[in-house]
Amino acid sequence: MNAKIIASLAFTSMFSLSTLLSPAHAEEQEKALNFGIISTESQQNLKPQWTTFLQDMEKKLGVKGNAFFAPEYAGIIQGMRFNKVDIAWYGNLSAMEAVDRANGQVFAQTVAADGSPGYWSVLIVNKDSPLNN
Protein backbone atom coordinates (compact mmCIF):
# COMPACT_ATOMS: atom_id res chain seq x y z
CA MET A 1 0.00 0.00 0.00
CA ASN A 2 1.16 3.50 -0.72
CA ALA A 3 2.67 5.28 2.33
CA LYS A 4 0.59 8.37 1.55
CA ILE A 5 -2.64 6.35 1.67
CA ILE A 6 -1.63 4.68 4.96
CA ALA A 7 -0.78 8.05 6.52
CA SER A 8 -4.08 9.47 5.28
CA LEU A 9 -6.05 6.53 6.71
CA ALA A 10 -4.21 6.78 10.03
CA PHE A 11 -4.95 10.51 10.29
CA THR A 12 -8.61 9.98 9.38
CA SER A 13 -8.92 7.17 11.94
CA MET A 14 -7.31 9.25 14.69
CA PHE A 15 -9.55 12.23 13.86
CA SER A 16 -12.68 10.03 13.86
CA LEU A 17 -11.73 8.38 17.15
CA SER A 18 -10.92 11.69 18.81
CA THR A 19 -14.30 13.03 17.66
CA LEU A 20 -16.11 10.01 19.09
CA LEU A 21 -14.25 10.28 22.41
CA SER A 22 -14.57 14.04 22.76
CA PRO A 23 -16.66 15.45 25.64
CA ALA A 24 -18.87 17.29 23.14
CA HIS A 25 -19.73 14.02 21.41
CA ALA A 26 -20.39 12.33 24.75
CA GLU A 27 -22.79 15.13 25.73
CA GLU A 28 -24.53 14.79 22.36
CA GLN A 29 -25.00 11.05 22.89
CA GLU A 30 -26.31 11.61 26.42
CA LYS A 31 -29.09 13.78 25.00
CA ALA A 32 -30.99 10.70 23.83
CA LEU A 33 -32.93 8.18 25.90
CA ASN A 34 -33.36 4.64 24.66
CA PHE A 35 -36.76 3.39 25.81
CA GLY A 36 -37.19 -0.38 26.10
CA ILE A 37 -40.42 -1.78 24.65
CA ILE A 38 -41.55 -5.40 24.65
CA SER A 39 -42.55 -6.49 21.15
CA THR A 40 -45.76 -8.36 21.85
CA GLU A 41 -46.36 -8.17 18.11
CA SER A 42 -44.30 -7.00 15.16
CA GLN A 43 -42.14 -3.93 15.65
CA GLN A 44 -43.80 -2.33 12.61
CA ASN A 45 -47.20 -2.58 14.30
CA LEU A 46 -46.00 -1.35 17.70
CA LYS A 47 -43.88 1.58 16.56
CA PRO A 48 -46.85 3.83 15.64
CA GLN A 49 -48.46 3.06 19.01
CA TRP A 50 -45.38 4.30 20.88
CA THR A 51 -44.51 7.26 18.63
CA THR A 52 -46.82 9.72 20.42
CA PHE A 53 -45.48 8.69 23.83
CA LEU A 54 -41.86 9.09 22.70
CA GLN A 55 -42.62 12.47 21.13
CA ASP A 56 -44.29 13.68 24.35
CA MET A 57 -41.32 12.42 26.35
CA GLU A 58 -38.95 14.31 24.02
CA LYS A 59 -40.93 17.54 24.50
CA LYS A 60 -41.08 17.25 28.29
CA LEU A 61 -37.45 16.18 28.80
CA GLY A 62 -35.80 18.05 25.94
CA VAL A 63 -33.97 14.94 24.74
CA LYS A 64 -34.49 12.57 21.83
CA GLY A 65 -36.36 9.37 22.63
CA ASN A 66 -35.39 6.20 20.77
CA ALA A 67 -37.43 3.00 20.81
CA PHE A 68 -35.56 -0.21 21.67
CA PHE A 69 -37.69 -3.25 20.83
CA ALA A 70 -37.12 -6.75 22.17
CA PRO A 71 -39.40 -9.81 21.99
CA GLU A 72 -39.28 -10.45 25.76
CA TYR A 73 -38.39 -8.75 29.04
CA ALA A 74 -35.04 -10.56 29.25
CA GLY A 75 -33.93 -8.72 26.09
CA ILE A 76 -34.85 -5.35 27.58
CA ILE A 77 -33.09 -6.21 30.85
CA GLN A 78 -29.96 -7.28 28.94
CA GLY A 79 -30.18 -4.07 26.91
CA MET A 80 -30.24 -2.10 30.15
CA ARG A 81 -27.41 -4.15 31.59
CA PHE A 82 -25.19 -3.32 28.59
CA ASN A 83 -26.25 0.36 28.35
CA LYS A 84 -28.42 -0.04 25.26
CA VAL A 85 -31.62 0.77 27.19
CA ASP A 86 -31.90 3.76 29.53
CA ILE A 87 -35.51 3.44 30.63
CA ALA A 88 -38.23 0.82 30.21
CA TRP A 89 -41.76 -0.04 31.21
CA TYR A 90 -41.68 -3.26 33.22
CA GLY A 91 -44.11 -5.36 35.18
CA ASN A 92 -43.34 -6.23 38.81
CA LEU A 93 -41.19 -9.33 38.30
CA SER A 94 -39.20 -7.97 35.38
CA ALA A 95 -38.66 -4.68 37.26
CA MET A 96 -37.12 -6.57 40.16
CA GLU A 97 -34.94 -8.53 37.72
CA ALA A 98 -33.79 -5.24 36.16
CA VAL A 99 -32.91 -3.98 39.65
CA ASP A 100 -30.96 -7.15 40.43
CA ARG A 101 -29.31 -7.79 37.06
CA ALA A 102 -29.00 -4.42 35.35
CA ASN A 103 -28.55 -1.97 38.23
CA GLY A 104 -32.03 -0.60 37.51
CA GLN A 105 -34.06 1.56 39.85
CA VAL A 106 -37.86 1.73 40.06
CA PHE A 107 -38.84 5.40 40.09
CA ALA A 108 -42.43 5.66 38.84
CA GLN A 109 -45.76 3.85 38.72
CA THR A 110 -48.59 4.31 36.27
CA VAL A 111 -51.82 5.79 37.59
CA ALA A 112 -55.20 6.28 35.95
CA ALA A 113 -56.58 9.76 35.31
CA ASP A 114 -58.60 9.48 38.54
CA GLY A 115 -55.43 8.73 40.55
CA SER A 116 -56.06 5.03 41.09
CA PRO A 117 -53.04 2.73 40.75
CA GLY A 118 -52.39 1.46 37.26
CA TYR A 119 -51.14 -1.98 38.25
CA TRP A 120 -52.14 -4.43 40.95
CA SER A 121 -50.43 -7.63 41.97
CA VAL A 122 -51.33 -10.43 44.34
CA LEU A 123 -49.47 -13.05 46.33
CA ILE A 124 -50.72 -16.57 45.70
CA VAL A 125 -50.03 -19.75 47.65
CA ASN A 126 -51.03 -23.34 47.08
CA LYS A 127 -54.60 -23.96 48.25
CA ASP A 128 -53.28 -26.53 50.76
CA SER A 129 -50.76 -24.11 52.25
CA PRO A 130 -51.02 -23.20 55.95
CA LEU A 131 -50.53 -19.56 54.90
CA ASN A 132 -53.93 -17.93 54.67
CA ASN A 133 -53.62 -14.30 55.67
From TrEMBL:
Signal sequence region? 1-26
Keywords for this entry? Signal
Question: Can you cite a GO biological process for this protein?
Answer: transmembrane transport
- Indicate yes or no for the key word Cytoplasm: no
State the superkingdom: Bacteria
Write out the GO cellular component annotations. ATP-binding cassette (ABC) transporter complex
Asked if the Swiss-Prot or TrEMBL record annotates the protein with the keyword NADP, the reply is no
For this chain, the family text in UniProt reads:
Belongs to the phosphate/phosphite/phosphonate binding protein family.
Q: What is this protein called?
A: Phosphate/phosphite/phosphonate ABC transporter substrate-binding protein
Species annotation = Bacteroides thetaiotaomicron
Q: Which gene specifies this protein's sequence? A: phnD
